[in-house]
Amino acid sequence: MKQNAKTAVLVFHPHMEASRINARLMREAKGHEDKGILVRDEYAALRSNQIDIPSEQAFVKGCDRLVWQFPMYWYSCPPLLKEWEDLVLTYGWAYGTHGDALKGKELMLAVSVGSAGENYHHEGEFGYTVDELLAPFKATSNLIGTVYRKPFILTGVSSGMSDQSLEKAAKDYLSCLQGDWPAQ
């Protein structure tokens, strides 16, 4: 990680008040602005149910590294992240002719998955790995010119992750945010 890099952690959880996992990860990341970690709860940031596109673009353009943190919903992301991509990552700004605002920035996903990790393989219950299910995000990263990094993935969160395991995961998350991000 380059010296004085800014990391934007964009959290997309529609029910943060009921969240145990994503709320804990978000709390762990908050309070480290002095280390360049800037956290934004995107659902809480909505005003009049509209995304402030210029504000979002300025925020992410001003950072070197981007994290999209979300719970996996139906093998994808919550609806606000998809809408955010549609509205914020515009042609001519994030991709296409002159669309290089995010080019060269790093992108990492931080994903919580309800089912156990062993269910996510070709012979498992779901027939796909979590990485395979995240392929559309990697394709988006390629389109917008960001460097896609290995996702931070927590599996089995619906089956009652212990407080001790959650605390370790939160510390690991902060360490990940502060360190070098491995390639995918």
Description:
By secondary structure, the protein is an alpha/beta fold. It has seven helices and six strands. Strands 1, 2, 3, 4, 5 and 6 form a six-stranded parallel sheet that branches. Helix 1 (21-29) packs across helix 7 (163-178). The longest helix has 16 residues, at 163-178. It is globular, with a radius of gyration of 16 Å. The two termini are 16 Å apart. 29% of the residues are buried. The model has no long low-confidence stretch (mean pLDDT 93). It holds the Pfam family Flavodoxin_2. This is NAD(P)H-dependent oxidoreductase. Keywords: Oxidoreductase.
Question: Topology of this structure?
Answer:
Blueprint: E1 7-11, H1 21-29, E2 37-41, H2 42-45, H3 53-61, E3 65-71, H4 79-88, E4 106-112, H5 130-133, H6 135-144, E5 147-148, E6 152-154, H7 163-178
Parallel strand pairs: 1-2, 1-3, 3-4, 4-5, 4-6
Put the structure in a nutshell.
The chain has 184 residues and is an alpha/beta fold. The protein has 7 helices and 6 strands.
